[in-house]
Write a structure and sequence with these properties.
The termini are far apart. A hairpin with a 5-residue loop joins strand 11 (282-286) and strand 12. This protein folds into 2 domains: 1-213 and 355-456, Rossmann fold, CATH 3.40.50; 219-330, no CATH class. By secondary structure, it is α+β, with helices and mostly antiparallel strands. The chain is globular, with a radius of gyration of 25 Å. The model has no long low-confidence stretch (mean pLDDT 92). A 7-stranded antiparallel beta sheet has the order 2-1-4-5-6-7-8. Strands 9-15-16-3-17-18 form a 6-stranded mixed beta sheet. Helices cover 26% and strands 25% of the residues.
């Protein structure tokens, strides 16, 4: 679970802003809160509203960038690639900062770092409770002792283990996170207890999922319907529930010569499958026409499947097969989100999604969020959306503390605030006030009389 995320001097965010999933004082919809862990609970949903270019997507890009820099790192001979705030010359000489407060594997953590294009200036990891914080490690490039590893030394008492930790710390490049170095250098094979470090890495790698408008999520799960009847039933029931007109799905084996992606890609896929150590390896290819293909290897043979939908034919028993490119954009969007819904309800997942409502009817996106919140009473997962869909702006669906706004000031810097900051009744319908600009996060449209190039 994400507890809080803060950012400073990154993209359109100049001053430090904090996005919080900590529940406010309201007592309504208690099922929207996660189970309390060491005195800390988190909300399961949040929707971020704002005008175009206000900074909604930049907030999500920042969350994604932090994940990437932790898991992939930076090559030793390269700069740290990011964009700081560009509309104030002073910001170019200032460091940037990102911090995640998370809940994972039975513990709460604060992990963050201060950086510029040349180096990681500071880095820290603390374990949190509602009463205290325990330092796991701290790094400061200007300190006489750049790494404080005392806590790790206390739980790893053998001298050779402590020496190995010192070696890893000293060998961490200036432009690399210590956490990244821990991951890539396989420290767990040489040090008995780095559980807290591994927990945070695991959260970034396996729990946090960031999805942008053109992304597809976990297409590979569609291949599993071939051998998993329960999964196929789940897909088909949800497609019927969302009124897509689809009665079934299937994988059709096709001639490789009939695939709608370049032959060179197919040859490269075969080479990769031959070199793969896994006997169950598959390749997923989404063609330019939005058709999903799966290539698998069986013995010395390669088999190509196409994911297809089934529709009833009036007056006949048979069903007509459709390519997914023949389905509407909205239907394809729903099919993209079904694996997401399944993983949300599986638990321990944080989905951060930009423009989830694209190509979806307002009733569908509303019901999708409502469905998750209803079915997740004993499940700790989160869905965080950046959206323009004003039909979600209702306290019938969300708590006040689950509604956030992004606005830009007169200098072009983005700021965040929550509906929780406004004194409004729990039964107040807020959509109209939002569109009228009460919460500021709407476009400031100019004076038409100033348009000199258009006809009078």
């Amino acid at each position: 679970m994400l507890i809080r995320f803060s950012i400073e001097n990154f993209l359109s965010f100049k001053d430090r802003v904090v996005f919080s999933m900590i529940p406010g004082k309201g007592t309504l919809k208690p099922n929207h809160k996660s189970n309390t862990l060491k005195g800390i609970s988190a909300l399961k949903a949040s929707v971020i509203f704002g005008a175009n270019a206000s900074g909604k997507s930049n907030l999500i890009k920042a969350i994604a960038w932090g994940k990437k820099i932790v898991l992939r790192g930076t090559k030793s001979d390269q700069i740290i690639k990011f964009q700081n705030y560009r509309l104030d010359l002073k910001a170019k000489t200032c460091n940037s900062r990102i911090e995640y407060e998370i809940q994972h594997n039975g513990k709460n953590y604060a992990y963050g770092f201060v950086f510029n294009s040349k180096e990681i200036v500071e880095e820290w990891l603390f374990e949190l409770t509602n009463k205290k914080e325990t330092k796991i490690f701290e790094r400061n490039s200007v300190s006489e002792i750049p790494f404080d590893l005392e806590h790790l030394f206390k739980i790893n008492k053998k001298e050779e283990q402590q020496q190995f930790l010192k070696f890893i710390a000293k060998g961490t490049p200036n432009n690399q996170l210590f956490l990244t170095e821990i991951r890539t250098r396989k420290v767990k094979d040489n040090v008995s207890d780095i559980t807290d470090l591994l927990n945070v890495i695991d959260w970034f790698q396996n729990s946090l999922k960031v999805i942008f408008p053109d992304d597809k999520y976990n297409e590979g799960v569609k291949f599993e319907i071939k051998d998993d009847s329960k999964l196929q039933t789940t897909f088909e029931e949800l497609l019927k529930y969302f009124d897509t007109g689809i009665n079934g799905i299937c994988l059709e084996k096709i001639d490789p010569e009939n695939v709608e992606f370049p032959f060179e890609i197919y040859e490269k896929i075969k080479e990769d499958l031959i070199n793969s150590k896994s006997e169950k390896a598959i390749a997923v290819v989404v063609s330019s026409k939005a058709t999903t293909y799966f290539v698998s290897k069986k013995g010395d043979d390669f088999i190509v499947y196409k994911f297809m939908t089934k529709h009833s034919v009036k007056g006949q028993q048979r069903q007509e097969l459709f390519d997914t490119c023949d389905e509407s954009d909205g239907t394809n969007r729903i099919m993209d989100f079904i694996p997401l819904i399944m993983d949300l309800l599986h638990g321990n997942n944080v989905f951060v999604i930009d423009e989830m409502e694209r190509s979806l009817h307002p009733n569908l996106i509303y019901d999708l969020i409502d469905l998750f919140l209803e079915k997740s009473e004993n499940i700790n997962s989160q869905i965080i959306l950046a959206s323009h869909e004003s039909s979600l702006l209702t306290q019938k669906l969300l708590r006040k503390d689950e509604i956030w706004f992004v606005v830009k000031d007169k200098d072009g810097a983005s700021h965040l605030h929550s509906l929780e900051e406004y004194n409004i009744r729990f039964d107040k319908e807020i959509r109209k006030d939002y569109l009228l600009g009460r919460y500021k996060a709407v476009p400031r449209i100019g004076n038409r009389n100033n348009l000199t190039v258009l006809p009078k």
